[in-house]
Amino acid sequence: MNQLDGVYGDGSTSSPSTGSVQNQVDTSGSGSGMSALKATQEYQQHAGTAYNNLDTELASFLQYLAGNQSVDRDALSQVINNTNSQLAQLGSAAYTRDGEVKVHQILVSALTNALKIVGNSNVNANAVAVEINRLTDQFLYNLVGVDYPAAEGISGASTGSSSAAQKAISVALSEQGKPYVYGAEGPYAFDCSGLTQYAAASAGAQIPRTAAQQYQQLPKVNSADIQPGDLIFPAAEFNNGSPGHVMMYIGNGQCIEAPHTGATVRVVNLPNSFAASRWT
User: Which Gene3D superfamilies match (predicted)?
Assistant: First the structure.
């Protein structure tokens, strides 16, 4: 975990300057009574949304970390509860620069503890650092009543993708560890296009069955414009427009796939060269 601490840094994120409230609150915590009152009122007005959104995103990320592993769900729930408790103690002090850094530190601690519980040694530390920064920014934006700008989360619950895409990604991620079986359409085993079709169906979309059909019959997407949920067809298996493999983009340069016989559903890096289509 010391390696993760080094990656996470000092909390320098892209959070807003916390609006007019921060400008009226002394960063030493000794602002005037009127400034303190305004900060408290602002906090009370927006805290509910900020905490609800953070809980949703944090729970989704912890589910992503756990994958198909059997973990202590009560322990993971406790991580979320402890995080909320620490943030609540910070209160409207989050509007100060020192408070922003403290929010970041609280989330670093939360994710570090979650990684210990999950025991997932395959998680990329840099990707986790990106997610911590994103969660910090989202919380701080929400605390001043501002919607967080569209951005991709590692868990796939991305504000930059449609709700249907988010649902499909969540379902696909929950199938990690299940075996690849040629022709299988779930829920106990999948082939590559069976997984993408199953995930899309969970979001209420009916898409073609095979990888080739999914590429040929769905709208094409420029590789520079892909969004979470899009279907990715690696160039190595493109076969002149009749691809033999498909995966689903989940954001942050990663995809989920049912790869081949002898392997299981897994998260992999986005191929260097690929074609793409969109079903949402």
Answer: endopeptidase domain like (from Nostoc punctiforme)
Tell which residue, 42, 34, 152, has the closest CA to residue 99. Answer: 42
179 vs 35, more confident: 179
pLDDT tens, 10-68? 445 555 544 433 443 343 444 455 566 777 888 888 888 888 888 877 777 776 666 65
Same domain for 117 and 41? yes
192 catalytic? Reply is yes
Task: State which residues form the domain around 204.
Answer: 163-277
Q: Of 32 and 271, which is predicted with more confidence?
A: 271
CATH number for position 195: 3.90.1720.10
Q: Report pLDDT digits (tens) over 209-264.
A: 999 999 999 999 999 999 999 999 999 999 999 999 999 998 878 999 999 999 99
Query: Is 153 a member of any domain?
Result: no
237 among known catalytic residues: no
90 and 179 within one domain: no
Give 85-140 pLDDT, tens digit per residue: 999 998 888 888 888 889 999 999 988 888 787 775 555 565 677 778 878 888 88
Both 136 and 187 in one domain: the answer is: no
- Choose the catalytic residue: 42, 104, 245, 255: 245
pTM, two decimals, is: 0.49
Look up 257 and say whether it is catalytic. yes
Q: Choosing from 131, 152, 192, 255, which is the catalytic residue? A: 192
Which of these three, 112, 143, 174, is where a domain ends?
143
